[in-house]
Design a protein that fits this description.
- The complex is a heterodimer of chains A (about 240) and B (about 400).
- Chain A has helices at about 50-55, 80-90, 105-115, 120-130, 150-160, 180-195, 205-210, 225-240, and strands at about 5-15, 20-30, 35-40, 65-70, 70, 90, 165-170, 200-205, 215-220, 220-225.
- With about 240 residues, chain A is of the alpha/beta class.
- Chain A has a single domain, classed as Rossmann fold (3-Layer(aba) Sandwich), CATH 3.40.50.300.
- In chain A, strand 7 (about 165-170), helix 6 and strand 8 form a beta-alpha-beta unit.
- Chain B has two domains: about 5-55 and about 255-395, no CATH class; about 60-250, no CATH class.
- In chain B, about 60% of the residues lie in helices and about 20% in strands.
- Chain B has 14 helices and eleven strands.
- Chain B has helices at about 5-15, 20-25, 25-55, 75-85, 115-120, 135-140, 150-155, 195-200, 220-235, 250-295, 295-305, 310-350, 360-385, 390-395; strands spanning about 60-65, 70, 85-100, 105-115, 125-130, 145, 165-170, 170-180, 190, 210-215, 245-250.
- In chain B, a hairpin with a 2-residue loop joins strand 1 (about 60-65) and strand 2 (about 70).
- The longest helix of chain B is centred in the C-terminal third of the chain and has 44 residues, at about 250-295.
- The chains are: A alpha/beta (about 240), B alpha+beta (about 400).
């Protein structure tokens, strides 16, 4: 049995703010296997962004352990975390975050300059990634700000794929898209999963979460399974009905 | 991150801000222009000196001497040469003035009476013919060496000019040589000293005596020694009106010039450093704006795996590239400015025909200054960019 891609255990994240201490994650444990497409759902302020940042090695937990493909990353320093991000992780953001004046190809190749990929290999890899997201070839030399939203997000997915990462993290990837384009982008994710990619997608939209193999819910810094979430919602509705 | 990638990222970042970048580097442009104009002029003056004077001139000692009994004579010079063996030779010259005519053409000019050694000592070059010989000097021959400009005036544009005759006073002179026309020697003709004294001036005189120091002798020390020797030999007492001695070297003239240039150099250095500091602050300001505007890009790069060091390098290189680009414009502007100032400098230094010179050393120094400013004033903005938190940067609106 292969090691799980994500194995987090008892993660706490406490922020110091001017208002005092904020306990954003309270003992979160989660395992994601290779090739799994997981959706994390939760309302704003539930701690889902904090969890996403920790999974993406952009932030480290206050306590608890996080093994990424068996490698303990919770205690690494900034430079080592940067290397993990460059080689093992791919990000897709709600607002695409493409370099506006750069061509599609250059945007997709951007992560490769931080992973020291030989120059000769870069263009070929970028082509492969763009083929995988079905972006027509005539757009490869376009500036990224000349594309439509759906095209931009597919370029962003190609950028996340280009390093052949262990894990793709998508933070509300359809948040800025209409429903038709959203569907196209989600189909792209589903195809990635079919090719064996591990995907963690964060959303507040149940229709988006429905594309995933499994959904976990996060509320007040704690993870709930589907059943727990249903029980939670049911109890809240009951409370609402009685009051 | 590889060096090539770093340069490409920098290039595209600067390209996107061209107008603003250009305005920002104006301070650097002015500062570097001042540095380059200054060094180009000073080097130009030095080249002009060496070129016009010839290297031989460093060994020249100028001797002006009048005794109580009048001008020194050829016999006196022979005695000096015996008593002061540090000289390779001592040669006298005298000045005259005359109108030379050839048919309807005429030219007014200075005429120098000299011995043959004079041409060697002054580094005067011929374009045609020869200088006069020792024998022609002894005989007081009616020969003349004229310069190219005078030759054209008298005989027209086409040569050869040698073997033609010029009427000067009551005599006809044979042209035996034509010298290069230069700023120094323009409109000056040469003839044997005795010829000048007997045929043109009609009196015996030696206005200027030139000593040519031997190669291993310090001309300044020799000048002092000569001064003392002459005062003792001729009992010269200027206060009592008994004659007159003044000895100086070309080297001392050059030193005097250097001190004139120094005040100019100080002024330009002050202008340059003020505008470079102001320019550097401008660069820092622009880089800080740049960092703020590109917070999301910095966040993205960090999320994609850029280390703090990569971000520092990228922004530092941007500020260096800005400064060097400004410096390149400054070098061109400075060279242009140097030509504009060359006239003023000619007046200050008393040398004509200064052509500004840009040496690889000056360009290297200017580039070095630019890189230095880029690093000093770019470091703080670059560190600020590198320290940004990726999570907050990505969320920045």
């Amino acid at each position: 049995m292969a090691l799980p891609v994500i194995d987090i255990h008892g993660i706490h994240r406490i922020y110091e703010t001017e208002a005092g201490l904020t306990h954003a994650l309270r003992g979160v444990s989660l395992t994601v296997d290779r090739g799994e497409f997981l959706a994390i759902m939760g309302p704003s302020g539930s701690g889902k962004s904090t969890l996403m940042n920790i999974l993406g090695c952009l932030d480290t937990p206050t306590s608890g352990s996080y093994r990424l493909e068996g490698l303990e990353v919770s205690s690494l320093d900034d430079d080592d975390l940067a290397e993990i991000r460059a080689t093992r992780l791919g990000f897709v953001f709600q607002s695409f975050n493409l370099l506006p004046r750069a061509t599609v190809l250059r945007n997709v190749m951007l992560p490769l300059i931080y992973s020291d990929t030989p120059r000769a290999e870069r263009e070929w890899r970028a082509w492969k990634a763009l083929k995988a997201v079905d972006l027509p070839e005539e757009y490869y030399e376009h500036k990224s700000n000349e594309l439509s939203g759906g095209q931009m997000q597919r370029v962003a997915i190609a950028r996340a794929l280009v390093n052949d990462p262990a894990l793709i993290l998508a933070d509300e990837p359809t948040g800025n898209l209409d429903s038709a384009t959203s569907e196209m982008v989600l189909q792209t994710f589903a195809r990635m999963r079919d090719r064996g990619k591990t995907i963690v997608l964060i959303t507040h939209d149940p229709k988006v979460a429905a594309w995933a193999d499994r959904t976990v819910h996060i509320r007040d810094g704690k993870l709930l399974t589907d059943e727990q979430e249903r029980a939670f919602t049911a109890s809240r509705e009951r409370k609402g009905a009685t009051s | 991150m590889r060096a090539g990638d770093l340069i490409r990222e920098t290039g595209s970042a600067l390209d996107s801000n061209r107008g603003r970048s250009l305005l920002t580097v104006l301070g650097i442009v002015i500062g570097i222009a001042a540095v380059i104009a200054m060094t180009a002029l000073i080097d130009g003056v030095k080249y002009a000196l060496v070129g016009q004077l010839g290297l031989n001139r460093a060994r020249l000692v100028y001797i002006n001497c009048w005794t109580q009994y009048g001008s020194v004579t050829a016999n006196d010079l022979e005695r000096w040469e015996r008593d002061l063996p540090e000289y390779e030779f001592i040669t006298g010259t005298a000045y005259g003035w005359g109108e030379m005519t050839v048919g309807a053409n005429s030219s007014n000019g200075q005429i120098m009476g000299t011995y043959p050694e004079f041409f060697d000592a002054m580094g005067i070059n011929l374009v045609e013919g020869r200088f006069y010989t020792e024998r022609e000097v002894e005989k007081g021959s009616l020969v003349i060496v004229i310069d190219e400009t005078t030759a054209r005036t008298l005989f027209g544009a086409s040569g050869p000019y040698v073997d033609r005759t010029i009427k000067l006073g009551n005599y006809e002179f044979e042209v035996i040589g034509v010298t290069e026309a230069s700023q120094m020697t323009s409109n000056t003709s040469y003839m044997p000293l005795p010829t000048l004294n007997t045929r043109i001036n009609n009196y015996e005189s030696m206005d200027q005596i030139l000593g040519y120091a031997r190669e291993d002798v310090d001309p300044d020390e020799l000048a002092e020694k000569t001064d003392a020797y002459l005062r003792k030999t001729y009992d010269i007492d200027e206060e009592e009106g008994y004659g007159y001695v003044y000895v100086f070297t070309m080297a001392s003239v050059t030193r005097q010039l250097d001190s004139t240039m120094l005040s100019f150099q100080l002024l330009m250095t002050a202008v340059a450093s003020i505008s470079l500091v102001v320019g550097g602050i401008g660069i820092m300001n622009m880089m800080l704006t740049n960092v703020t505007e590109r917070i999301r890009e910095i966040g993205l790069r960090k999320a994609l795996g850029a280390r703090a060091g990569d971000i520092t390098k990228q922004f530092l290189l941007e500020s260096i590239a800005l400064c060097v680009a400004g410096g390149a414009i400054g070098i061109l502007a400075g060279y242009g400015g140097a030509w504009a100032l060359a006239g003023v400098a000619s007046g200050l230094a008393g040398i004509e025909g200064i052509a500004p010179v840009i040496t690889p050393g000056a360009v290297g120094m200017a580039t070095g200054i630019c890189v230095g400013i880029g690093i000093v004033f770019g470091y703080y903005p670059a560190r600020r960019a590198a320290k940004l938190d990726p999570v907050e940067s990505l969320r920045y609106q």
